[in-house]
């Protein structure tokens, strides 16, 4: 396989192709992670809003959605469940953010390698 770059041809080795493929997979994972992070942030905000609403209410028994069903649950238990869901979501968000950072580092290393060899004949940037 040959690629033309600036008037000269640069041979694409098997290793180069593996690096290009790996970059593509990492780029796809980066987009998935960004979507998952957005969803986790929205869920965290919703839990925060629900927690704030609980503070304002006077009722001792609340309707709480479990799956597709609403159940009557004591206010204290609802507060505990919301707090636990917030903690779980925050841990998940932290895990996703850490994975995103490692993907970005790995992509930067691959960019350096690939741009070093192919210069302007390869485009790894988002449009």
TrEMBL record:
What CDD domains does this protein map onto? Answer: Prefoldin_4
Report whether Coiled coil shows up as a keyword of the record: yes
Q: Does the keyword Isomerase apply?
A: no
GO BP term, example: protein folding
One Gene Ontology term of the molecular function aspect:
unfolded protein binding
Annotated InterPro entries: PFD_beta-like, PFDN4
What is said about its interaction partners and assembly? Heterohexamer of two PFD-alpha type and four PFD-beta type subunits.
- PANTHER family the record matches: PREFOLDIN SUBUNIT 4
Q: Briefly, what is this protein's role? A: Binds specifically to cytosolic chaperonin (c-CPN) and transfers target proteins to it. Binds to nascent polypeptide chain and promotes folding in an environment in which there are many competing pathways for nonnative proteins.
Protein name according to UniProt: Prefoldin subunit 4
Organism for this UniProt entry: Helianthus annuus
């Amino acid at each position: 396989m040959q690629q033309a770059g600036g008037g000269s041809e640069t041979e694409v080795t098997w290793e180069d192709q593996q690096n290009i493929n790996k970059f593509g997979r990492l780029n796809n994972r980066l987009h998935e992670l960004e979507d998952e992070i957005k969803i986790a942030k929205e869920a965290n905000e919703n839990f925060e809003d629900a927690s704030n609403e609980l503070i304002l209410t006077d009722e001792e028994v609340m309707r709480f959605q479990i799956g597709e069903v609403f159940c009557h649950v004591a206010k204290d238990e609802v507060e505990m469940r919301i707090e636990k869901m917030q903690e779980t979501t925050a841990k998940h968000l932290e895990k996703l953010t850490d994975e995103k950072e490692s993907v970005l580092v790995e992509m930067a290393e691959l960019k350096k390698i690939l741009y070093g060899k192919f210069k302007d004949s390869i485009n790894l940037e988002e449009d």
